[in-house]
Amino acid sequence: MKLSVNGIPIEAEDTGGPGEPILLIMGLGGQLIHWPAEFMQALIDAGYRVLRFDNRDAGLSKHFPGKSPPNLPWIATQAWLGLRPRLPYSLSDMAADALGVLDALEIERAHVIGLSMGAMIAQRVALAAPKRVQSLTCIMGSSGARGLMKPTSAVMRAGAGKPRGQADAETLARYYVRFLQAISSPTLPPSQEAFMEVFERTAARHSPDTDATARQLAAILTDGKRAKQLASISTPTLVIHGKQDPLVPPVCGEDTARRIPGARLQMIPDMAHDLAPAVHPEILRRVLAVLLPFLAEHPLGSETQSSTLRAEP
């Protein structure tokens, strides 16, 4: 369904029902269909009402073409110097979209789960509207602190030669699968068939747009002030990170959990940057074994003050 959010169309899906709402926020360049079906079903079976949406500049939501793709090295340099480069939008704008989805569906309060860039947006949601967030789960995310997000050389090589704009399907498929393989678990990888199935579904719904992804990445690169602000979050928080993440290194998860008072850190063995769009069943099982009990510990109507939770190795 199409929602009018902050003056732009945002595509969303709502499983409905009387259960406590969970708002899922997808990562860089991702679409709402990239939440694995098995992940969705596990939340539904646990009794939750699950909401998911396409971020701006992704999937069937509003895109922002018409300008040259952002010069990411120059934007990163400006951000490092404390300058404010002109961008189409910020992570705070994307957080406002997430809150706008709740508004449009008349939901006052929800559990918020973000993945990768979505985890960073989820942090912004908790900072902007703490009374709207029952619990916060950051999966494979980062605080935005300087010097943490250093992908491995293998991931950098896989990302090189990214096609620009609306490339042909064969070129996009080769790049898409190569990159997903580079960020997936070396010990519990999804199958080649799973990667191709995801790409085909993605292309049929809305072909990947690398210029749009660059605009989202520019919003990430310029959100460095968020790190110091995380200390003000009092929402119960779970940080899930893969021990083998080559794109957003494990230190990013450790840093996020350290900055949010009382946050619980769970490092998942064998997990890389691969809960979505394709995931090995064992990785999914390990994530759900941590996530579902955490959600159950913080039902709607319970105390919102963050409890003191010891970080787990």
Q: Work out the number of β strands.
A: 8
CATH superfamily: Alpha/Beta hydrolase fold, catalytic domain
The total of helices stands at 11
Q: Report the sheet with the most strands, covering strand number, pairing sense and barrel closure.
A: 8 strands, mixed
In the CATH classification, which architecture applies? Answer: 3-Layer(aba) Sandwich
Supply the key terms.
eight-stranded mixed β-sheet, AB_hydrolase, AB_hydrolase_fold, 11 helices, 313 residues, Rossmann fold, alpha/beta, AB_hydrolase_1, Pimeloyl-ACP methyl ester carboxylesterase
Summarize the structure.
This protein is an alpha/beta fold and 313 residues long. 39% of the residues lie in helices and 14% in strands.
Structural account:
The chain is an alpha/beta fold. It has a single domain (2-297), classed as 3-Layer(aba) Sandwich (Rossmann fold), CATH 3.40.50.1820. It is built from eleven helices and eight strands. The chain has helices spanning 37-45, 72-80, 91-104, 117-128, 153-159, 169-183, 192-205, 210-221, 226-229, 250-259, 281-297, and strands at residues 2-5, 8-14, 21-25, 49-53, 110-115, 133-139, 237-242, 264-268. It has an eight-stranded mixed β-sheet, with helices on both faces. Strand 1 and strand 2 (8-14) form a beta hairpin.
